[in-house]
Every structure is written in structure tokens, then in C-alpha cells.
Amino acid sequence: MEQFRPPHEVQRDTELALAFRDGDEDAVRTMYERFGGLVFTVAHRILGDGQRAEDVTQHVFLQAWRHADHFDAGRDFAPWLATIARRAAIDALRKEQRRPTEAIDHADPSDSALVTLPPSAEQIETVWSVRTAIDSLDPNEREVIRLQHLQGHTHSEIAEQLGVAVGTVKSRSHRAHRRLATRLGHLRQDVDQ
């Protein structure tokens, strides 16, 4: 899934990739700061446990550092790291699940493992794109989006919580949605194809 990224971001990531491949400690730190949340999220979705996801996150960055010479400096880090994270989390899950099994008839029907597959690389990239777009909003707009979409508040409830007029909330929401539509337009195009 190809998406538009500003040239300065591509150049910054290319420089980071080259430094990372050369074993530069600052580049490793920068990689962890920028992409640690993504790797943790992927691992946590598969494992369902924060401590195990943190262990996998550490392992992923160690693996990435060991295999940095295989990374194409012109590509985006996020899908590469998400793929490593997904594989590492599945491996960790398999190691833990090596125990006697029972017939599927005895499984708890509400067990999410029976009905939910791990997210695909495309789903992970979509979530990462949306998260990045929201994080890039003005803090006031980002807060309105968070309260509206993640916590399910109405415009009136948001206005009361933030201590601003309802019209202010509506205008922030409108501006934020317009910016998000522009930044995430590539996702709509992918669905239409």
C-alpha cells in the first residue's frame, strides 16, 4: 500500500536508515522513540499482555539492529518493524502455547483467539497512518477528536469538559476532520481500488 509522504520525511528516514545500518547509537535511540509505540501496539494486540509485549518490543529492536544491513534505506521503517514485531509476537505466543491441548468443543466461545486473526501488515499500516495523522493535529483539535471519537462524547459534552463554547468545539472538529481527510485521503483511494 503506497502512500504519499512529504519529501522531508522520506529524506529524514533515509538518513536515519543509513545511520541505523551503520550501528549509530543515536539512530537506534531515535528509531525506538519514533517506532517503539508501533512495535508495542502490534505485539500487544497479538499477545494481549503489556509485559510480554514490552519484552517482544525489546527483542524486535535488537533483531532490527542485528539485521539492519538487510533494510532498504529508501523504504519506510514502519511496515518493516511491524512485520518483525508481528512475527516475534506470534513466535512468543507459540512458545507459550506449547502445552497439552483440549478439543475445540471445550474452548470458551468468547475467546478472541477463536474469532480474531492477528492484524495484517496493511491493517497495522492503516492504524499507524491514522495515529500519525491525529498526532500531527493542533493540540486543541487533537483533544476534540480524542474526546469525540475515542471516548464518544457529544459536542456539548466536549464543550463542557473543555470549558469552551459549543461553536468552538464544532469549528475545531470541522478543521480537524478536514485536515485528517486530506492527510488520510490515500486510505479512501485504497478502498476504492
Tell me what you see in this structure:
The mean pLDDT is 81. Helix content is 73%, strand content 0%. It contains 10 helices and no strands. It has 2 domains: 1-99, RNA polymerase sigma factor, region 2, helix turn helix motif (Rna Polymerase Sigma Factor, Chain: A, Orthogonal Bundle); 136-193, Arc Repressor Mutant, subunit A (Orthogonal Bundle), CATH 1.10.10.10. The protein has 193 residues and is mostly helical. It is flat.
List the helices and strands and how they pair.
Elements: H1 7-21, H2 25-47, H3 50-66, H4 77-96, H5 112-115, H6 121-135, H7 139-150, H8 155-162, H9 166-183, H10 185-192
Helix pairs in contact: 1-2, 2-3, 2-4, 3-4, 4-6, 7-9, 8-9
- Write the CATH fold name of the largest domain: Rna Polymerase Sigma Factor, Chain: A
According to DSSP, the number of beta strands is: 0
Main beta-sheet annotation? none
**Helix/strand class:** mainly alpha
Q: What is the CATH H-level superfamily of the largest domain?
A: RNA polymerase sigma factor, region 2, helix turn helix motif
Give the distance, in angstroms, between the N- and C-terminal Cα atoms.
11 Å
Rough shape?
flat
Q: What count of domains describes the coordinates?
A: 2
Count of alpha and pi helical runs: 10
The CATH architecture of the largest domain would be: Orthogonal Bundle
Q: Strand percentage, roughly? A: under 5%
The percentage helix is over 70%
Arithmetic mean pLDDT: 81
Which class of the largest domain in CATH terms? Mainly Alpha
